[in-house]
């Protein structure tokens, strides 16, 4: 039996107070999620809208949900009323939809720009040039219902921690560059979301501010 509470307490000891933990709940049951909730966790993450909207109504209202996976524009409307952060903004079109749907709810949705830092082609994310193009566009400047709070990235899935470290450092550098260029006086642009179960220790060394962790807390997933 996986002892979720013990795993969490152990993990919490390794995470400094200024780093946020997103408890990644994909494939987990509401019962499992409630163990984490009752241990004091309030920030949870899902990578699929379908699963997020299936769970959210059955779980406590004070949970802050992060959408951490690739998001289709036609699904934004299902989460825009309550999602607390959209972490994987990887194209202008998505930002446009988030802005439009957030407006209907009279909200400003905090977002992170996802960058492609891994070697694998399969991972989503912007290049720095693409991000610069978005951030300097008139269209973006006029958006009143999205707030870009930082960057997010996923390292290559590998045991080579030197490589992971280089990729995280790259994301840190991107954060610095975007910050200087577009958000120099903006205190809310401060997040670097990097680090999962297999690489969170490396991420802590490289200056992460948001960890997204599932398996270390809940045990291995059967399917992803
Ligand atoms: C699944 C997932 C995680 C967490 O993965 P674990 O290895 O279970 O910690 C983090 N980020 C994203 C985007 C994910 O999809």
How are the elements arranged and paired?
Elements lengths: L3 H11 L5 E5 L5 H9 L4 E4 L2 H7 L8 E4 L8 H4 L5 E5 L2 H13 L4 E7 L12 H8 L2 H4 L4 E8 L7 H22 L8 E3 L6 H6 L4 E4 L1 H4 L6
Parallel strand pairs: 1-2, 1-8, 2-3, 3-4, 4-5, 5-6, 6-7
The protein binds pyridoxal-5'-phosphate.
Brief account:
With 224 residues, this protein is an alpha/beta fold. It has helices at 4-14, 30-38, 49-55, 76-79, 92-104, 128-135, 138-141, 161-182, 200-205, 215-218; strands spanning 20-24, 43-46, 64-67, 85-89, 109-115, 146-153, 191-193, 210-213.
Structure, described:
With 224 residues, this protein is an alpha/beta fold. The chain has one domain (4-218): Alanine racemase (TIM Barrel, Alpha-Beta Barrel), CATH 3.20.20. It has ten helices and eight strands. It has helices at 4-14, 30-38, 49-55, 76-79, 92-104, 128-135, 138-141, 161-182, 200-205, 215-218; strands spanning 20-24, 43-46, 64-67, 85-89, 109-115, 146-153, 191-193, 210-213. It has an eight-stranded parallel β-sheet with strand order 7-6-5-4-3-2-1-8. It is globular, with a radius of gyration of 17 Å. 38% of the residues are buried. The model has no long low-confidence stretch (mean pLDDT 96). Pyridoxal-5'-phosphate binds next to strand 8 and helix 10.
Q: Architecture in CATH?
A: Alpha-Beta Barrel
SS class: alpha/beta
Top CATH class: Alpha Beta
Cα distance spanning the termini: 20 Å
Mean pLDDT: 96
The name of the CATH topology is TIM Barrel
Strand residue content: 15-25%
Strand order of the largest sheet: 7-6-5-4-3-2-1-8
Largest sheet: 8 strands, parallel
Q: Secondary-structure element order, as H and E? A: HEHEHEHEHEHHEHEHEH
Q: How many beta-strand segments? A: 8
CATH homolog superfamily: Alanine racemase
């Amino acid at each position: 039996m996986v002892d979720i509470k013990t795993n969490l307490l152990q993990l919490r000891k390794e995470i400094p107070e200024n780093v946020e933990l997103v408890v990644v709940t994909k494939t987990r049951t509401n019962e499992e999620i409630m163990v984490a909730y009752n241990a004091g966790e309030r920030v949870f993450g899902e990578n699929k809208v379908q699963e997020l909207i299936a769970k959210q109504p059955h779980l406590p209202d004070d949970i802050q949900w992060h959408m951490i996976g690739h998001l289709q524009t036609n699904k934004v409307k299902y989460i825009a009323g309550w999602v607390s952060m959209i972490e994987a903004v990887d194209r202008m079109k998505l930002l446009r939809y988030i802005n439009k749907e957030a407006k209907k709810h009279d909200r400003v949705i905090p977002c992170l720009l996802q960058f492609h830092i891994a070697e694998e082609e399969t991972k989503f994310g912007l290049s720095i040039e693409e991000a610069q193009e978005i951030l300097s566009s008139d269209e973006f400047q006029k958006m009143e219902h999205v707030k870009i709070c930082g960057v997010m990235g996923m390292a290559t899935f590998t045991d080579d921690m030197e490589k992971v470290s280089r990729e995280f450092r790259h994301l840190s550098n991107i954060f610095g560059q975007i910050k200087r260029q577009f958000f120099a006086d903006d205190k809310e642009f401060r997040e670097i979301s990097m680090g999962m179960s297999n690489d969170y220790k490396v991420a802590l060394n490289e200056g992460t501010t948001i960890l997204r962790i599932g398996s270390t807390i809940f045990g291995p997933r059967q399917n992803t």
